[in-house]
Description:
The complex is a heterotrimer of chains A (about 475), B (about 475) and C (about 120).
Chain A: E1 14-18, E2 24-25, H1 32-40, E3 49-51, H2 55-68, E4 75-76, H3 81-86, H4 89-102, E5 108-113, H5 115-120, H6 124-138, E6 145-149, H7 158-173, E7 184-187, H8 193-206, E8 210-212, H9 237-241, E9 248-251, H10 258-268, E10 272-274, H11 281-295, H12 301-322, E11 326-331, H13 333-345, E12 349-355, H14 360-365, H15 367-375, E13 380-384, H16 388-396, E14 404-407, H17 412-418, E15 422-424, H18 442-463
Parallel strand pairs in A: 1-13, 3-4, 3-5, 5-6, 7-8, 7-9, 9-10, 11-12, 11-14, 12-13, 14-15
Chain B: E1 19-21, H1 50-58, E2 65-70, H2 73-78, H3 92-95, E3 98-99, H4 104-109, H5 112-125, E4 131-136, H6 138-143, H7 147-157, E5 162-166, H8 176-190, E6 204-210, H9 216-227, E7 230-236, E8 252-255, H10 258-272, E9 276-278, H11 284-298, H12 301-326, E10 330-335, H13 338-351, E11 354-360, H14 365-374, E12 380-383, H15 387-397, E13 401-404, H16 406-413, E14 419-421, H17 432-447, H18 450-455
Parallel strand pairs in B: 2-3, 2-4, 4-5, 6-7, 6-8, 8-9, 10-11, 10-13, 11-12, 13-14
Antiparallel strand pairs in B: 1-12
Chain C: H1 3-20, H2 29-47, H3 57-76, H4 79-82, H5 85-105
Helix pairs in contact in C: 1-5, 2-3, 2-5
Amino acid sequence: xxxxxxxxxxxxxxxxxxxxxxxxxxxxxxxxxxxxxxxxxxxxxxxxxxxxxxxxxxxxxxxxxxxxxxxxxxxxxxxxxxxxxxxxxxxxxxxxxxxxxxxxxxxxxxxxxxxxxxxxxxxxxxxxxxxxxxxxxxxxxxxxxxxxxxxxxxxxxxxxxxxxxxxxxxxxxxxxxxxxxxxxxxxxxxxxxxxxxxxxxxxxxxxxxxxxxxxxxxxxxxxxxxxxxxxxxxxxxxxxxxxxxxxxxxxxxxxxxxxxxxxxxxxxxxxxxxxxxxxxxxxxxxxxxxxxxxxxxxxxxxxxxxxxxxxxxxxxxxxxxxxxxxxxxxxxxxxxxxxxxxxxxxxxxxxxxxxxxxxxxxxxxxxxxxxxxxxxxxxxxxxxxxxxxxxxxxxxxxxxxxxxxxxxxxxxxxxxxxxxxxxxxxxxxxxxxxxxxxxxxxxxxxxxxxxxxxxxxxxxxxxxxxxxxxxxxx
Amino acid sequence: xxxxxxxxxxxxxxxxxxxxxxxxxxxxxxxxxxxxxxxxxxxxxxxxxxxxxxxxxxxxxxxxxxxxxxxxxxxxxxxxxxxxxxxxxxxxxxxxxxxxxxxxxxxxxxxxxxxxxxxxxxxxxxxxxxxxxxxxxxxxxxxxxxxxxxxxxxxxxxxxxxxxxxxxxxxxxxxxxxxxxxxxxxxxxxxxxxxxxxxxxxxxxxxxxxxxxxxxxxxxxxxxxxxxxxxxxxxxxxxxxxxxxxxxxxxxxxxxxxxxxxxxxxxxxxxxxxxxxxxxxxxxxxxxxxxxxxxxxxxxxxxxxxxxxxxxxxxxxxxxxxxxxxxxxxxxxxxxxxxxxxxxxxxxxxxxxxxxxxxxxxxxxxxxxxxxxxxxxxxxxxxxxxxxxxxxxxxxxxxxxxxxxxxxxxxxxxxxxxxxxxxxxxxxxxxxxxxxxxxxxxxxxxxxxxxxxxxxxxxxxxxxxxxxxxxxxx
Amino acid sequence: xxxxxxxxxxxxxxxxxxxxxxxxxxxxxxxxxxxxxxxxxxxxxxxxxxxxxxxxxxxxxxxxxxxxxxxxxxxxxxxxxxxxxxxxxxxxxxxxxxxxxxxxxxxxxxxxxxxxx
Lengths: 474, 474, 117
């Protein structure tokens, strides 16, 4: 706690700029195919087929395993030299057929390109047509969806790759409107099972029938007496097919699945509501109110109480422990922006926001970033196309002092070696146990996140003997 | 019936050539699995790519070297935070990774300028670091960027830096193995012999093919110190870049991992006449044998016997305690390649464990000659095993513990089988005398973990109770 | 010694090398042959009481390999102590034949003739 710090900043400013360096030291995001693979595993009976070198899928599987402590099935076309020279479409055809034969339950294969196969210029759409022909001959009764996912690694990042694969699967599987089903399509973005479970619960409590795309609840999967392996997404082919019949779409993440909401609106006239990602109280309020308005279902007492409980907990923390604490946040753009808004609610001061990749022109136009200008009473810097060296070097060069870092595990050493408390949030969080199970969205998520922040700060005070006596009584 | 076509492989019958079940009175003159051959697309193989074989396994271990990966962001992101190789200088190698973060314009117009810029930025940002390895990746190899020319220019502009280049895109070869080869050969041809060591002992050696996993190198170094042997180059555990330029001055090359690093030992023999001694650093009796051979080479047998006596007095009782309790347990090993033959006999001799199935990701036929010579009858020997094969093999051999990577570990957990990290270890080091006691302890703790027994209980069935494990305090 | 008894003893020695040694499984045919010849020659010297030549680094290496093996042979196979020089020669010749056969002549390893390391 800084003593007697002056709070008056006559002209607080939000500076938005891109990283000045060209190269990257310690990346924040993986490349497009990784994000596409994450979207693909969210579907039931789906094995993504990554068209590229074996590392492009092997390491991504490892990354998912690190975060969720689960194994996910992802296949590779195992591209080698001769494909690099003569083209790799035969590898796709062979891969699809091998998967179809050995996995009789399989219903969807997103075919995910990589940098190499995009440079080679393999015709994925044409290959899918020839695959479908071969599949029809081999399995006349079986419908297997092959979605072309163009995700060259030299564009965007895992964030755009996720969005691209969701969109391609919808374009491949979704069917024309038939009977209105009264449901909501909800695209939460790249979130944890904890968030999916929370959103499902909220919808249930409101009496709203909704489908979460992608439904990753089972990414937290059990050890069962019968030794069943259930680790896969719960979004079914039928859910996607039926999405055009929905009452409305709620896209909760502008950059992660938001494009699919827009596509459903354009193609099937499903009204699309692009919401602020529901981190923090006000964003959650806005979401629930809008859902209530669209569905005509009232917000139930249970959620009013949950909101109250969260506020009650936050009130214990905000002005006593959090106020004037400077925070750096990095990760996916929708998460970082949402967490910054949450921070302002609990009097934390997010002074540095780092978001990655080459989509700067979009970020600059993001109304949420523009709106931060009116909300802050301190100087804030937003760096896009950022890497983690942006954070580390500012700290080690003495240009930035923060009391807390919020981000994923790839930045862990910045916190550890600069003695700064850190709360793991986002993806991946492999160096803390069980975080994938906890919500960050909604009232409960805000409360749990704040409590995690508080406990992290408390533990830090104790380890460093820094006013550890404050908690002598609380 | 020695070569085996598993049920899950009925549609890919060529897999029969890769799976061997050892029967009495057979040997590798009759049956040798085909290895180091291309993977069938879509099989969910465990293999990575050649780039990762060079960067992640060997080059990235160096403790004072910038790892500049010329390609899109994913290749850097994915080969970072996936290894446990600490160093005695604060783990520089694990904290950082560098990428040129190639974008579409670089693919179109060439990425050499971007590489040069990124290299200069990296040296500018960390002025105390003077060594760098530059790696190509799939797209930079496809567009034909001349990384050697760029490295030359940067070295000319910055006379105090030294740069090594590795041209090994992910699609080259069939697995990580190709990357090992390219880095080995490149290093010995371009860097060995460019710097002279200070000789401090008449007994000098290189220790090759040990990457300081959880401190392996550092543990073994205590032995070499006690024996008065100077290790000129550790290839590459806890090593400096410049140490490895001096390898030509050692009198002996001691090789642990013959797969990843046998090539450089062979070349040092061919080019500099330094003999190659292959040892097994995992295993109690093997380690003693290795020490004896090294000491016999130098004519310092008494020192060796003294060290062995001291270590055995300290660790043998502990090892025997575990052996008593692990006798007859069944182990499966699914790792890279050499650990199959390093471990199969050592866990049998030192711990009484029977290895019932082994799968290698990137081993060559040489590795299968070694492991089949050493391994038991009734054991499966598998090249490039895939997920469905693992399920089937587990069913056939019913192992009590599996040594494998964390992702597969998460998979077999669902089958109530504990895993021990066969790549990064659970709580290592595992090399040397003390190390093998660590391995024994981790195996014991895995095998006697009560949770697997509890997981098998269906609480709806009254008569089902967890088996009582006779677990004792170690 | 009968041919059968000789074969049994060679089996024992061969079994040991297969289980404990790595030098006969070097990378290529030529270095496998070099190691088999060298290590067994040094072992022959030691088992028949001759002083092994230790001039080149390679001599020292083969000596180090042979020394370990010979010590283990003596410990595991007590009959070796009784063996005369001629029998030792026969045993090692038999062992060499078996090792060359498995590691070189009849090996299916497709890399043995590769021109590069």
